[in-house]
Amino acid sequence: MRGFGKRRDSKTCCPLNLHLLAFASRPVHRSGAMTQLYRLDAAAAEIARHFDCWAGSDPWGGGYVAPGQFAPVITAGREFIAGARKGRGQHRLIPRIWGVPPPPSAHDPSRGIANVRNVDSPFWIGNLRNSEFRCLVPATSFMEWGSGIDVEGRRIQHRFACADQPLFAFAGVWKDSEVPTFALLTCPANAALRAIGRDTMPVILPAGRAAQDTWLHAGWDRAKALLAPCPAGLMQGTAAGI
Q: Is residue 7 part of a domain?
């Protein structure tokens, strides 16, 4: 599994205007119990083939993603289409910033929200109930901080991948204000994550087109049933002090 340390220039993911540059430079809320980093070691063309979506000219070539950076997400393709639905359209690979601007009432409105903790919150429920705002977030692994330290007193970074899905999808939701953004859905941690001291984890959708289509197109009652931890037996984990 590749390391998380090599930084890539988020500006190469899509053309930026001044609003995007300003928002991407803001801090993003990174609670200690939430995912802070993931890798997507697949180019846009490979992602498009795997998830059967349109990639356009997305230049993503692979690398890691941190809050505040651009990353490819897969939508139902409705962002640019007005009017009533006419069946399943072409899914689209779209670059968005990880971290949604918070509501004006937030304690620190300058910090983006990278993870959805409460799906019943008025801030999220409208978008989640409307399937057009749900998205797939492709990834090949993700990082979580463990509760222990190594022999040199450094916190331990744990990296997790899926044994049955070398390229998998997190469940995500997107919002638009002045900038295109997204956040990851979370759920209770499985045994592998609890073993390192975590109480939540990102939602990893089951392998196969059925679960992906349910998340992108089904009613909220069916989609919400997917917000469950990935079985620990299907995960591969490594640890390294950083």
A: no
